[in-house]
């Protein structure tokens, strides 16, 4: 690495840059909760809708925030949302879990342009391995969404939505910083008369962080990939096809031994829209998601693969000016495999098919926005499940609205939770699917001087909650019932070029069988960001504070500060700088019982970058 990117020199360079051009996140780090009331979202209803009309709590990480620091991974971006907790055992490339509103990590469904991207060998997803180079926005829907998406969406949905080019452009972005961290992106966009094409190539590399408290060694991470999309968008029809692939390698430590893994994730997506008439629209999507995770440097290598194929087709009928109804069918085939990788490893291979039928009704006028739906899903392994949702938002005044949302959801065990093989731990063939019911009340209110207030209270009850712990040798089993109760209160302010956002979230994730809190979920969470932005240059400072949580040992709370700045020198050149964890706070992320120590979260990372666009 050049001397510029040695720690001391880099921090000094960034300090100078910040003094020269105060800026960054107003454009970018307006944070997860800074979505405009006119922001369009699709996750809650499967079609575009203004965020202010959605009868549920939904937040957005916008394109400016994502582009502000290309080296920032998805777990770090999600950390700045007070309503969820991210547990990552180390830095880049290390295992991460997302607990949305206190529910289990497996209760959050991840989508990429509509395609489910949870893996089937374990309960969760490889979110640290997702690349965001082609992502326009990230939508976080809080609350049950099984009516729209089927299994897994008990706590909510997080969807990554890719960009659609609107103009001809070619650009390159380079960001580099401490610990030999750098990322380069090359992109080409073409758009003319409704036709468009997009190509991205990216490369990321870092020496990584110290991930275990009593071990000074760092865990490196290396990733590269590409994405391509072509399509046409006309008033009467639309068609797009995309492919993306990310692959690389990462380090970790097991019982003191250095180990490594290789990974590949791929997404293929074809989507079509046909306006059959002025009030009748047909949408169809064909998708495939592959995830391969191979532990290659180990005494006991492990090769686990997931392949999902999905077809979704629906018909939306706008039968009056204020009402529409959506009829749809979704088919999913998931194959999970553990390849025999050493003598005595039996491996396994299994697949499951589901088909879901859903219907959703929406009504919207000046006083009400309502959403009601039902889904019947037939799971090859676990039978038929019927779920429903009823939600409404009441616009009491032009500045004040209230909403309520009641919904049921379910989650079927994945292959890795039910398989019983000598070389695979934790499987229990007798596991039952989880079922839930959620209740939520919320409000949004606009005051004078650019101030907006919002708040929510909610409760989710889950029957047959699937857990594993040391008492059963980490074999999965069903709890009778768990209850997740919480509230959120937020404030957003914008006046001329100044802005500030704050959100406080409280959740009690209660195991009703033991009357104790579920692990790894702090009850109290707080986020704050403030800054200045005139769209030429800007500056943002962000605070993330998390309370203590329970693990095998108590995990103390922590607080970190990030700073970001950018300067759009001219339409073709933009420079930017970022400091993550400004105080280099060393805080514990999880208990590591292999070496009687703690996993550590990422330390300070100072970076600087430039984008050239033509």
Automatic annotation (TrEMBL):
Coiled coil: none annotated. Residues 1-26 form the signal peptide. Keywords: Cell outer membrane, Ion transport, Membrane, Signal, TonB box, Transmembrane, Transmembrane beta strand, Transport. Residues 51-157 form the TonB-dependent receptor plug domain. It comes from the Bacteria. One of its GO terms (cellular component) is cell outer membrane. InterPro entries: Beta-barrel_TonB (IPR000531), Beta-barrel_TonB_sf (IPR036942), Plug_dom (IPR012910), Plug_dom_sf (IPR037066), TonB-dep_rcpt-like (IPR039426), TonB_box_CS (IPR010916). A motif (TonB box) lies at residues 39-45. GO terms for biological process: cobalamin transport; monoatomic ion transport. The keyword Signal applies. Residues 227-582 form the TonB-dependent receptor-like beta-barrel domain. It is a multi-pass membrane protein. Transmembrane segments: none annotated. Gene3D superfamilies: TonB-dependent receptor, beta-barrel domain, TonB-dependent receptor, plug domain. It is found in: Cell outer membrane. It holds the Pfam family TonB_dep_Rec_b-barrel. Belongs to the TonB-dependent receptor family. This is Iron complex outermembrane recepter protein.
